[in-house]
Every structure is written in C-alpha cells, then in structure tokens.
Amino acid sequence: MTNGTEKTPGLSPIDFLRTRSLANAVQTEIERMIVEGEFTPNERINENALAQRLKVSRGPIREACSALAALGLIQVIPNRGFFVRELSDEEAREVSEARAYLFACIVMGVAKNAGEGGIATLAGLVDRMDQIAEMGEVSDYYPVNLAFHSELTTLCGNRRLAQMYLGLARELHIQRYRALASGDVLNTSNAEHREILDAVKAHDEQRAFAAGYAHIANGTVRTRRAAWARHPA
Predict the structure, then answer these.
(1) Partners of residue 121 on adjacent β-strands
(2) What is the pLDDT of residues 15-45, one digit of tens each?
(3) What angle separates helix 205-230 from helix 89-113, to the nearest 10 degrees?
C-alpha cells in the first residue's frame, strides 16, 4: 500500500518532495498564464517550449498539467496532449448557476458563524479592492478578489460546501478574469463585495444569502458581456 505517498522509483524521499514542490510552482504559473490569456481556449500546451521557458524538465510540466486537468482547467486528448479547456455555453451556464447557489449558502453561513477577526479580515480585503479599483488594475485586483472569496469559504463553517464551491469557481477562472478586465467594472464588483460584508457584519443571514447570489448572478452577466465583446455575433 502507498497510502497516497507513492514516489517515483529511484528518487529519495527528499528528492521526491522537491519534485512535488517544483510541480506545484509550475502548476501555479501555468494556471496564471491560462487565466491571464497567455494560453487561449483550445490551445495545445507545448510541453517542450514551456519547459524551456520555465527552465524545468518536462516531468513537472506534465505533473502540473495533469493536476490542472483534474481541476477542470485543462483537458487531456489521447495521443495529442494537453489542451486549455473551453467550457461550452451550456457547461458555463450550469457551472455559473450552481456556483451562485453555493456561494449564497456560503455567505449565509459566514453571516451566521463569523467572528470579529474574520469580519475584520474581510473588511481589509474589501478596502484594499476599493483602492485598487480606483487605479483600474485588474491584474492587482483579481488576486485580492480571489482572497476575499477564499476567506468567505473558510469562514462559512462547512468544508464540504467550500470545496464544492472552489471547484466550480476554478472552472470559471478565465471567464471571471476577463469579465473584470472588460470595461469599468471593478468598482461595481467591489460594491457587491461591500454589500456582502455589510450583511455579514449585521449577521443578517437572509440579506447575506441574497447578496451572495446577486454577486455571482451579476458576475455571470458581466462574463457574457465580456465574451460578446471579444466575439460579437
């Protein structure tokens, strides 16, 4: 039995851990490249070129791509390689709808369970996004936006719910980033974050549910507008 720790033959335990650490770093970089549009939907990931660019061997590239495939950002086509996954319109609709309901439940849970420390953390992130939104820098805004959503999942008090939400949210990374990058929407997005924060501060569960659902639903509309702007009918 390997109990989840099986290592590559010929590697010492420390070398194995170094390989895994490198693969994690490579995964983070590939994910960033996908989200920020350096790789386009349906584009094949050239393992050799990427290995040269990141100055690593192909092993960590393959391991990172396999991990991203499990998360839904990449698809594996037999005998062809790794490709950036593009959700169909129907898949995107279903994922967005499910994400809206899950997020509403998460925010409601935060309103019920969050203490002063968690609320202070959320408030700090919202204030930071206000500052960034004034500068209009989506590349700076997006990581803080992700941190805000992640903090809500931590504070909701239900790890299974949080895991389901994060899985769905990851599938929509590309669409979410492009929606925030299209037009003057950062202030609008963060106004919705502040409404969530205010509901949480008041420990108003019904208001929190409505604010959480509205934020995702409005984000879905922004995503559709961004897609239309990129590829008008």
Answers:
(1) none
(2) 544 556 788 889 888 888 887 678 877 899 9
(3) 150
- Residue type, position 88, single letter: S
Helix, strand, coil share (%) of the chain residues, nearest 5? 75, 5, 25
**pTM attached to this predicted model:** 0.69
pLDDT per position as a tens digit, 121-144: 999 999 999 999 988 888 788 889
Pick the CATH number of 89-230 from 3.40.50.300, 1.10.10.10, 1.10.3720.10, 1.20.120.530: 1.20.120.530
Query: Which architecture characterizes domain 13-84 according to CATH?
Result: Orthogonal Bundle (1.10)
Domain range list for the chain: 13-84, 89-230
Half-sphere exposure of 190 toward its Cβ, with a 13 Å CA cutoff? Answer: 23
DSSP one-letter code for 41: T
